[in-house]
Amino acid sequence: MRPKLEILHEELVHQIIDEAFGLLLDPGVRVHNQEALDLLAAAGADVDREAQIAHIPEKIARRALKTAPSEFYLYNLDGEPVVHYGGDDIHFDPGSAAITILDSKTQEQRTAVTADFVKFVKLVETLPQIDAQSTAIICGDVPEEIGDLYRLYIALNFMRKPIITGAFRKDTWWTMKDMLAAVAGGEVALAEKPIAVFDVCPSPPLLWSDLTCQNMIDCARAGIPSELVSMPLAGATSPVTLAAAVVQHAAECLSGVTICQLAEEGAPIVWGGSPAAFDMRQGTTPMGAVGTWMIDCAYTQVGKSLNMPTHAYLGMTDAKIVDAQSGLESSGGAMLAALAGVNMISGAGMMDFESCQSYEKLVIDAEIIGMAKRLVGGVEKRDDPIALTLIRKMGHRADYLADPHTLRWFKEEFYIPSPVIDRGSYDAWKGAGAKTAFERATMRVEELLATYQPSSITKELRNELSAITTKAAQTFGMDELPTLPDA
After folding, report:
1. Which of 171, 203, 448, 466 is most buried per CB count within 10 Å?
2. Is the pLDDT of residue 486 over 80?
3. CA–CA separation, 401 vs 410, rounded Å?
4. Distance separating alpha carbons of residues 138 and 279, to the nearest angstrom
5. Rounded to an integer, what distance in angstroms lies between the CA atom of residue 22 and that of residue 323?
6. How far is 389 from 191, CA to CA, in rounded Å?
7. Kind of pairing between the strands at 46-48 and 53-55
């Protein structure tokens, strides 16, 4: 039996969905994209062109839900399906779009550069607990205008796992698509076996920017999955009550599904988000708050009731260093997300309100993820009878350690962490240097990086990716890209 968390009563789920449909009609959704407005108008929505507001009848949104796939797969660069969006399957990827890195030596945040992200991508590849890459870091040593495509360029050079990404501009999306198609073996191959998902973020409340809307439409027509990241900020950009924030989230996601399916029926799209419970004291958006976790779990339940694949930004911390707060917040969010059956849980390594990445936190989070995956594996009956035969054989002897039954099952029954997690005695800990979790994680990072296996892309393909990226960089005054190490 898989343990499962459901945070809403069934009748509340239905009411949330009903009210979300109601919001689509009144006050409607503001859409700053002409093509999307045209699609909505052609489908029968009442579109106020001057105000750029679409009043969407429920029947249009429900029709879109019927054509949106309930599941799809992401593939690694070897063409193998490794991530299943759908049902209660869970997967983890790092938090994305950090602008700083936590320096391992000083424990101070600093601007991230190319070498930092190369190291990060390699580290993710060595962690079996983490299922996908993300464009986790925005590099400060290239023009801001190519920050989105440059991070994808780096990742594609060093990864095998699929990737969660996103575009910051309408024009750079096309460059990113060209890079993905080059790696996948062409646009048709990319659509048949997608290796990437693009995050698309509506703006709360109930608004689609020109950029995000166009990215979603372009993804749909290219057969590239898109991931809705609705971000209601409870008490600031959405109602303060958690259920009401989920209503707004549902309306924003329903509008996204509708636009996506009007652009291309059957296009894969994910019901996701990154909401927060606004901190009234500090004016911040805490991702480690229990209210944030509850909104995430609630909207996941709503998405599942609509037969949609799901995503959430959880397993992060608002702490500024890797400390007790970091562990508390990251583990709480990751465990709840796993129990809720979120298909893609984004956040590993991330801290300080989604702005900073840390190598050390990433490897600690990998242990949290390993525990979370074991938790949802549940308690299974391994033998029949469960214990009578074995215990009667052993009698009153406390000698199970030497029994073949223990050797057969202990690695499947227990999660066995890396040395990052200290399970030795006090004397053993002192004898090994009395290292903190951060110090052990720093050592583990270097151990893992030494095991990194180069990606499977050829030198010719690397040159093609470089040419595509260099052309974009030259448009914004950068003649040569930073040098990448060998893959």
Report:
1. 448
2. no
3. 10
4. 26
5. 44
6. 53
7. antiparallel
**Pick from 274, 431, 243, 436: nearest CA to 345:** 274
- The tens digit of pLDDT for each residue in 121-147 reads 999 999 999 999 999 999 999 999 999
Q: Is 305 exposed, middle or buried (0-12, 13-18, 19+ CB in 10 A)?
A: middle
Left, alpha or beta for 353 (phi > 0: left; psi -120 to 50: alpha)?
left
Other beta carbons within 10 angstroms of residue 133's beta carbon come to 27
Mean pLDDT of 77-105: 98
Residue 404 class from Cβ within 10 Å (0-12 exposed, 13-18 middle, 19+ buried)?
Answer: exposed
Q: Which of 476, 40, 82, 86 is nearest to 263 (CA)?
A: 40
pLDDT digits (tens, 9 = 90+) for 278-314: 999 999 999 999 999 999 999 999 999 999 999 999 9
Quote the tokens at residue 34: 């002409």
Whole-number Å distance between alpha carbons of 145 and 157: 20
Q: What is the DSSP letter of 54?
A: E
Give kind and range of the element (H or E) at residue 376: helix 359-377
First to last CA, the chain: 42
Respond yes or no on whether the N-terminal peptide bond of residue 3 is cis (omega within 30° of 0).
no
Report field, pTM of the whole predicted structure over 0.85 = yes
φ, ψ of residue 400 in degrees (nearest 5): -70, -25
What does the angle CA 465 – CA 471 – CA 472 come to, to the nearest 5 degrees? Answer: 95
| Of 48, 47, 54, the residue nearest 29 (C-alpha) | 54
Residue 371 CA, chain-centre distance (Å), reads 18
Domains and CATH numbers, the chain: 10-56 (no CATH), 66-377 (3.20.20.480)
In 206-268, DSSP assigns E strands to 207-208, 226-228, 233-234
pLDDT in tens, 214-264: 999 999 999 999 999 999 999 999 999 999 999 999 999 999 999 999 999
Residues 6+ apart with CB under 8 A from 154: 114, 117, 118, 121, 139, 484
Whether cis (ω within 30° of 0) applies to the bond prior to 162 is no
Q: Which of 318, 259, 247 is nearest to 289 (CA)?
A: 318
The answer to whether 85 and 71 have CB atoms below 8 angstroms apart is: yes
The pLDDT confidence band at residue 192, using thresholds 50, 70 and 90, is: very high
Look at the block and give the residue holding tokens 């399916």: 261
